[in-house]
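Good morning C.,

I know you're traveling, so I'll keep this short. The sequence:
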Amino acid sequence: MTTEATERELILGLIIREGFEIEDYAITAREAEAAKFHTLFVADGLSTDVKAPRGNLEPITLFSALAVLTERPGLISTISSTFSDPFTLARQVASLDHISHGRAGWNTVTSAFGQENFGPKALPEHDERYAVAEEFITVVKELWASWGKGATSSGHTGFSVDASKVHSIDFAGKYFQVKGPLNISRTPQGRPIIAQAGTSEAGVAFGARHADIIFIAGLDGLEASQQIYAQIQRQVAQTGRDAGQVKILPGAFPIVAETDEAAHRILEDSLADLDYPAAIRGMAPMFGGIDLSGYDLDKPLPPEALPDEALIDGRRSRYAVLKQYLEAPGQRRTLRDLVRFHSAAAGHWLLIGSPQTVADQLQERFENGAADGFIFIDAYNKFPGSLHGITRLLIPELQRRGIFHTDYTGDTLRATLGLPDPD
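The tokens, ready to paste straight into the viewer:
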């Protein structure tokens, strides 16, 4: 692969691992900042299985703490539009943008489960969840814009507000009625960064209209990745937006060691004691509740076990990735292969090898129209030391090739990503 510098550089984000202690998150965040990750993401689940409990700190609370423990990386919280209200979310994310001096973002998701904790109404069907999300994000963006530039000032006489630059939004839709304005001033970024996760038809259309960052499941092959990248860019352009101002970042799960052999040993050691029945139960939400436990582990799944993507009401885009993995041409992948793949990488692109091997694969996709960068998953819970492999081995190799920055630029996350002022 070429090592010549290029003006276009990878954007790298990191999904930080689950946990309950701020000290653990702080260690991860500081290591990521030292490696110059553009942004940190935290996933969020609104329910957990009593047989295998898991969880993490609430995202806005967590990132408010990390905002004063870090200086440069973006802080993007995953918050569901299905189980939140737009005024509260707009206020929370705007507050985080002020606390972090312009580093906040919202990863908008529609949630495929968790309704048992927000009853009594049933979970809307997949496409209706996106209809709700459309109104929700419209309200949030209007609330963020309800304080204009120059609406506030401070000086020796104290803090003052120019009321002529603050307006109500008077939104009245099918799902939400919000008068506004927001009760917090315009944020340092003008508008916090909006990220969107999901590559279902409805998800891509939604992201094309609203997102600054589109986070997609990392696909198994270059050609498939190029196709989804081009599809998203076309849809962005069709909305009248500049496709170059929307960053498309596939998920990637790198296991990096000094040699290819050492990296593969890390993977095999981690899967040696895999509880297959429990892992199959854990995949059920990805398959819309489909139970795969009755199938032979060492045989390919029959076609009837894998319905069309449009029939799945759960995490439709992730289901499509797992289905594609099983049905890859020229492969004879079994249920055991699927369970190992999902357990190792949760349906994301799994990269295993030395810094040179993994960097070659990332560079190939970056330079051939398949990605603007990647969202790495911190695999600490499954592969202890995995973040060190990324920060101490892989990042220096990417910097040596001139495709990843060596320091932050800009005063805000929006500026660091090279995105224009929202006005």
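Safe travels,
E.
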